[in-house]
Amino acid sequence: MAKLLEVKNLKVQFKTREGPIHAVEGVSFHVDEGEALGIVGESGSGKSVTSLAVMRLLPTPPAEIPDGEILFEGKDLLELPESQMRKVRGGDIAMIFQDPMTSLNPVLTIERQLIEPLQLHLGLRRSQARNRARELLEAVGIPDAARRLRGYPHQFSGGMRQRVMIAIAIAANPKLLIADEPTTALDVTVQAQILELIGRLRRDLNTSVILITHDLGVVAGITDRINVMYAGYIAESAPTDELFANPRHPYTLGLLGSIPHLDEPTIGTLQTIPGSPPDQLHPIEGCPFQPRCPFVLPKCKTYPPEVLVGPNHRSACWVDVTDPVDLARAAARGFIPVRESTGRIGSVPQ
Questions:
Q1: Which has more confidence, 275 or 300?
Q2: 328 phi, psi to nearest 5 deg
Q3: Which end of the chain has the least Cβ crowding within 10 Å, N or C?
Q4: Nearest-10 Cα torsion for 263, 229, 90, 76
Q5: Where are the alpha helices (H) located in 3-99, listed in sequence order?
Q6: Residues 124 and 118: beta-carbon distance below 8 Å
Q7: Are the C-beta atoms of 313 and 246 separated by less than 8 Å?
């Protein structure tokens, strides 16, 4: 399958008075045509910054990209002049932003905000754009679309505003759709509807998708592959089924251990990853997860290389979390093995 997007050794920093904040530290990944890639991790791991870098939407200054390439259909987006990038942004690559209330202009009607990309990227006349806007609202499940086009964002619920954002994003039939936390602040039922909608649009339009979230449960049923990010690095990358069945990085174990499972009784509190993410103003030498990791070794002071641990499965870790010796050493530090009935590998210290 052909690569639609390829990110190579991307680094992003933010200049501050105290020094540079190292938000993204040499990230490399790709998205194939028609593929859905999930990017997961805690807040501050670099997920959204990576997506904004792809869209060239980072404010410069304070942001700067000292190294890396972002190849879209073979063209480096970082080398394009802004006039050409405007044609890519919203045309070939579209983005659903995290908060639809602040992403939509509160003083413009939904119709005005929907027809702009149709006129800009598809060259439609106003009457054509208005008809297409109504069709888009119907496609994303908003009833009485002709009337709702005349409404303003504050007249829509959170779920409806997110549907409007999706309609705007797919207006020009993009080849790549980036969804940044599209279900944040929505109730569980609406979350499921939004995810089902993104999956259906992907199938119907053959659009590649990057789904960014902090919740592994969100990406479980909609993505083909998952990148797990931590402190600006990709800690683990694998096909979705393989990642859930055979996690190989201690951080991934921690994320999976914090998810409640309906097929198991929950005793006490949910498991947590001890400690906090590192301060990116003062990066940790070596693996950034080592202060929180039950498997830590002296050589973790050097950042581990990315190792192939299975078919299309890579992990950046010095230890083998499936090795009985490493598991025993981690258990001596308070590591709680997984519930044996599930077949999952591990959890995190209590």
A1: 300
A2: -65, -40
A3: N
A4: -140
A5: 47-54, 82-88
A6: yes
A7: yes
